[in-house]
Amino acid sequence: xxxxxxxxxxxxxxxxxxxxxxxxxxxxxxxxxxxxxxxxxxxxxxxxxxxxxxxxxxxxxxxxxxxxxxxxxxxxxxxxxxxxxxxx
Length: 88
Prior knowledge:
Layout: E1 12-16, E2 19-30, E3 33-43, E4 46-54, E5 60-64, E6 73-74, H1 77-83
Antiparallel strand pairs: 1-2, 2-3, 3-4, 4-5, 5-6
């Protein structure tokens, strides 16, 4: 027997006028990454995509859309706010 489990998936959306950031769960595993999510930043004339995944100990990795897993960096508060800076 194959068991399928369904889970409620919550999307986070931060909005300021016509600017917004969406954080969407994607999949549990993607290659060596686990807890994978996308973060899309939209502002007039700007769309950026970031990939987030769980770091081995605590916290999250972040990388830009066209970067490989090898370019993951630990997402600090400073990096997060730099990524969503266009909301201000």
